[in-house]
Amino acid sequence: MESKTRKFLEILKIELEDLIFDLEFSEKVLTKRLQDHEITEYVFLENASLLKREILGIEEIKKMLYKSNKTVTSVADLRETIENYFKDKIKSAGLPDVVFLLVSRKLEKVSRYMAIDD
Hints:
Blueprint: H1 3-35, H2 41-67, H3 75-93, H4 97-117
Helix pairs in contact: 1-2, 1-4, 2-3, 3-4
């Protein structure tokens, strides 16, 4: 694996961890809103369930990234592999479509950052 690909992968892993942190924080905000009686228990459970599924989806992509360390040879291939894997995973696992959007944003962010190095 070339150094640019390795760098892209490491930065993306950090960005995905940040995304998981944000989603977990959202769950804490939901809990507080439930305690303050701003939302109903039904709304809380629905939203918390969705957040957990989003986190699980992102965890899945992190696992795939660790597996792809040896098989991907360029940044473009890595990005395409991630996008294709995730599209398939969303369909097969019934993950929320928003997970793909969130990960796509992180991919774009890391790609823009990597372009600065060029």
